[in-house]
Design goal:
Elements lengths: L3 E6 L3 E6 L1 H6 L7 E6 L5 E6 L3 H15 L15 H10 L2 E7 L2 E2 L6 E9 L2 E9 L1
Antiparallel strand pairs: 1-8, 2-7, 3-5, 3-8, 4-7, 5-6
Length: 132
């Protein structure tokens, strides 16, 4: 399978977007393999998590709370007001992977592929690659 690309359009600020169904749609016909889902953006991320609105707010609250007492940041000095976005992206990561066996993605019942937007609004890419 060649690399498939999804485009996600985010809202202003910070948000979490469930991209599970879009990713799985691209896997139709895949019998077996390892799936790599990546985003090439330094102020966005991907992770596995439960797509519960309250929990999504909590993900953001925890990370924001960890960073708030550490400012001010040096990156802001260059007219870049998105230091926290870069750090949050690095903390969450920009890739998830999982296996497909007998056409079934082996992910948990409540495990979704969540896209973390930290510096929206933006048009973002997500790349999907299967190694069969």
């Amino acid at each position: 399978m060649k690399v498939e690309t999804l485009v996600v359009v985010s809202t202003p600020g910070r948000s979490i977007i469930n991209v599970t169904s879009c990713v799985l749609e691209k896997l139709r016909g895949v019998e077996e393999g390892v799936v790599f889902v990546t985003t090439p953006h330094t102020t966005a991320g991907l992770f596995f998590g439960e797509d519960d609105p309250a929990l999504c707010r909590d993900y953001l609250k925890v990370v924001e709370g960890l960073l708030a007492p550490l400012g001010p940041f040096e990156h802001v000095g260059g007219n870049n007001p998105n230091t926290e976005a870069h750090i949050m992206s690095a903390m969450f990561g920009a890739q998830v992977s999982f296996t497909v066996e007998n056409t079934i993605p082996l992910i948990g019942v409540y495990q979704g592929i969540l896209f973390l937007e930290m510096d929206g609004p933006k048009e973002r890419k997500i790349h999907i690659r299967v190694i069969e």
